[in-house]
Amino acid sequence: MKKKNNKNKTLYIIILVSLIVIFLADFPKVYTYVKDMNANNKLKVFLLNDVIDVKLDVNNKEQMLVDFEKLINMNKDTVGWIKFNDGKINYPIVQSTDNDYYLDKSFDGKKNQNGSIFMDYRNKAFNDRNTVLFGHSMLDGSMFGSLRDVFKDNFFKKEENNYIKIYTKEEGEITYQIFSYYITDAEDYYITTSFEDRDFEIFINNIKRRSEKDFNVDVGLDDKILTLSTCYGTGGTSKRKVVHAKRITPSNEINY
Fold first, then answer.
1. Which of 52, 61, 198, 245 has its CA 20 to 30 A from that of 35?
2. Whether 168 contacts 126, CB under 8 Å
3. What is the distance between the alpha carbons of residues 68 and 166, in angstroms, rounded to a whole number?
4. Residue 56: is it exposed, middle or buried by C-beta count within 10 angstroms (0-12/13-18/19+)?
């Protein structure tokens, strides 16, 4: 009996030591993740308080105003602001000369694994046939993490959830209506930014066919598309969550 107890005690010590080793090995990663998450959320709160103003228009409807002068002074790479999903996504949009720089840089230019919401380097503002925005799918729902909500039942029953708001210095508020969302492998196709007419028509048909829901929204050659892209899962996954929306207004004309 004593030998059995000694064996159990030895096994317990081995398991305990193994767990301690694993914890110590992962602690720097966990610490950095939490630190970056807190820093990014504090930056978001600061920006919302400093550059965003909400007023009532003549129809007693809330209108969001963005102080782009302040944003551009903070970061010259600023190209817009995005708001979606009840403000869970509510961030400035930046653009660099490649699609790598802002993967691990926050809006203030500091190294941060949360990264930023950024526009594909090939896009020219929001005038291309397909404007692509990237953001990490963070576990706490920040950045594009809340795009997971799009895949939940009844998400689109709330009228507001069918629309994505983009704000720019030149045009003010722009409204996009969602017409497709799906999960796919990482690929270049859905993030193509420019097309000839025939290729664009094929592209529209393909991304509508991929959608997990038929929105019954017409999309044609004269439309401009906004694409949101983020990872599906964690740890270097090759899957992507994708949302496509078409531009429907240059200003605040949607009532919901």
1. 52
2. yes
3. 13
4. exposed
Q: Which of 178, 231, 243, 245 is catalytic?
A: 231
pLDDT reported for residue 237:
75
Sign of CA dihedral 14, 20, 22, 24: negative
What's the pLDDT at 60? 78
More confident residue, 59 or 83: 83
**What's the chain's average pLDDT?**
88
DSSP label at residue 89 = E
User: Which residue shows structure tokens 């529209």?
Assistant: 204
* In the predicted structure, residue 168 carries a pLDDT above the cut 80: yes
Contact (Cβ atoms closer than 8 angstroms) between residue 102 and residue 88 = no
Render pLDDT for 134-144 as a digit per residue (tens, 0 to 9).
Answer: 999 998 999 99
- Give the helix/strand (H/E) hosting 201: helix 197-210
168 is catalytic: no
Domains delineated in the chain: 79-249 (2.40.260.10)
**Cα torsion for 228, 121, 197, 176, to the nearest 10°?**
30
